Sequence to fold (493 residues):
Amino acid sequence: MEAAGGVRTEWRWTRKDLVSLEELSREEIELVLDTAESFKEVSAREVKKVPALRGKTVANLFFEPSTRTRTSFELAAKRLSADIVNFSSSGSSTVKGESLKDTVRNMEAMQVDTLVVRHSSSGAAEYLARFVKAGVINAGDGIHEHPTQGLLDIFTIRERKKNLEGLKVCLVGDILHSRVARSNIWGLTKLGAKVSVCGPPTLIPSKIEELGVTVGYDLDEAIRGQDVLNILRIQLERQRGAFFPSIREYAAEYGISKERLERAKKDVLIMHPGPVNRGVELAGEVADGPHSVILDQVTNGIAVRMAVLFLTTMVER
Amino acid sequence: MDKLILDRAAIERAVARMAHEILEKNKGTEGLALVGIQTRGVVLAERLKAAVQSIAGVSAPLGILDINLYRDDLTRVSEQPVIHKTEIPFDIDDKVVVLADDVLYTGRTIRAALDALTDFGRPRRIELAVLVDRGHRELPIRPDFVGKNIPTSREEIVQVRLVETDGKDEVVVSQG
Fold:
């Protein structure tokens, strides 16, 4: 085994941080996905653990409430035998700048190797990554990016459809406030998918076409011929202005109902990053129906986060 | 200066002999399973499986093991290993698992493989089959089935090439 053939041509990972999918190359994205594929088997074992990150410490720093992403990172770290601590400050009174910096400096003083950071300010993870020696993984920063969600979405699509090249993927709903949408757009377009967005005009950022996507406002039109519909959550907590008249009207215009789904391709995949507002952006019977891969996304999330934790933590600091 | 140690025919004979030895030592195929270590160990395991089948007419289950996550030098290697898949599609409890790898050297890969296998269950016995034993063990590990013993210095490089992974069958020793 040792130095067996000697030369391996596969792409190597060199980043201690994962801040966005915008900054990754196609090869880097594929390396994460391939590594995640290898890690998926670990969670299916009776002993769901490998010693790869034994002795490493990971800190979950959540300045914004989150249950599933935090839990997913926590399980991912544990299945790699890393030690993980949780720090949450859901009060959100934490002011940017000094106090965020202080918290992180404290974590570093405790010899934490990798920080998983969620923050309501766009750019928080990148800001931290620049001055800490520890690795920084962005677990969602404001309305900027949520790279591990983007990666697990792409992983789930690839698992079902095999090849992303030319695949039609439509992101539906609140694109304006969605970091999930942005990460999906960057990642999917790099892998050759044809990405479109559809939602109320008030929730589609202007100039989004510059990211290489097409825009639609009529959902019945937009879903025709799509291979994947990734339904975004209506983020009531992020909407201070009135972006649509009422929840009921939104559901009628942009919700995926069973009837509406009949216009889609027979083998269309329905995705959602969770938690689902049932009956708003997605009907319950669709969320639980045969097209839905929502729970696969949750399962795959652990494998993808294991891959990201492993790759970034193993990079020499 | 490369020195050819085994050619295609010699590798074929070595594999056939090892298959016979496996059957002899275990008195048949009862509970026998093969697990190859990524990547050339997998090829060796596949060939041993085929040889066992042609001799005894029984198809033994085959598994694939990537040991990188169990390496004792994971935090010290300068190049990050690429993680390949592990796939053991059968229950290893109470099986006789023949672990296969191309080259046995320090024994650290096998140590990692033993740890990995233990996470999958409790085999009745684990045996080790290698195509080449080049010596220089750093751990108390010995093979049960050996294709060829090759005395080497630490400076020398043993290269096992197999059709499935490298396009041709040969074992070559070169100066490092």
In short: The interface with chain B takes residues 1-6, 8, 10, 12-13, 31, 34-35, 37-39, 41-42, 45-47, 49-52, 55, 80, 307, 310-311, 314-316 of chain A (CB under 8 Å). Residues 133 and 317 of chain A are 7 Å apart (CA to CA). Chain A has two domains: 26-146+298-313, 147-295. Confidence is low (pLDDT under 50) at residues 1-9 of chain A.
